[in-house]
Amino acid sequence: MFFAQYSRRCVGLLAVAMVLSACASTPELTPSAAPAGNYTLDPTHTSVTWSLSHAGLSNYTARFDKTSGTLDFDPDNPENSAVFITIDPASVSTGLPDFDQTLATDSRYFDVNSYPEITFVSTQIIKTGDSTADITGDLTFRGVTKPVTLKTKFYGAGKSFGNPGKTLGFSAETTLLRSNFNMTHLISFGIGDQVTIRIETEFNEG
């Protein structure tokens, strides 16, 4: 009895290991390794953080918990690809729920009742290396649209657990002035105007 139970357990563990090994593989680092077509942002493997100076003493850092988006990917000519991203500003997360509520709803901050979305629509992609590019697009935030450029790195194309098709991985970073988007509260008290945005994300095929 014990031997039979032990054997079934071993077989079960081996099956799980085989499934996991089949679902995850070393990414192929060249863009041409990925199929052309439409990809959907994976919110469970996406992180959007922002930081700004706190009176010169530290870089205060928070994040948005809800993002969505699409990628129309051209592996042979990545410059012809297109990205569309939506961020829910009500999902701002600092670790302090009361402050999150203030940031989300106060008219001096994200004012989600008036501006329920932050969007980015790519307008130009310029390759800067084998796996890097500058993605310029229109960022709409608090009713203002301004161009920003994301310094972007392509991590590769591979298999991600739970996704039947290819998964593409990227990181990106940009800086902007929040005063350009009519958010000036506390700048005069030393809370930074320049905001750094960092993105880690995956896009799933199909």
Q: How many strand elements? A: 11
Query: Roughly what fraction of the amino acids lie in strands?
Result: over 45%
Q: Total domains, how many?
A: 1
Q: CATH topology, anyone?
A: Lipocalin
Q: Could you say which structural class the secondary elements and strand pairing correspond to? A: alpha+beta
- SSE run: HEEEEEEHEEEEE
Describe the structure in your own words:
The protein is an alpha+beta fold. The protein has a single domain (26-205), classed as Lipid/polyisoprenoid-binding, YceI-like (Lipocalin), CATH 2.40.128.110. It has helices spanning 2-23, 97-105, and strands at 37-41, 47-54, 58-64, 67-73, 82-87, 92-93, 118-127, 132-141, 144-159, 166-177, 191-205. The chain has an 8-stranded antiparallel beta barrel. The longest helix is centred in the first third of the chain and has 22 residues, at 2-23. The radius of gyration is 21 Å and the shape is elongated. Residues 10-22 have low confidence and may be disordered.
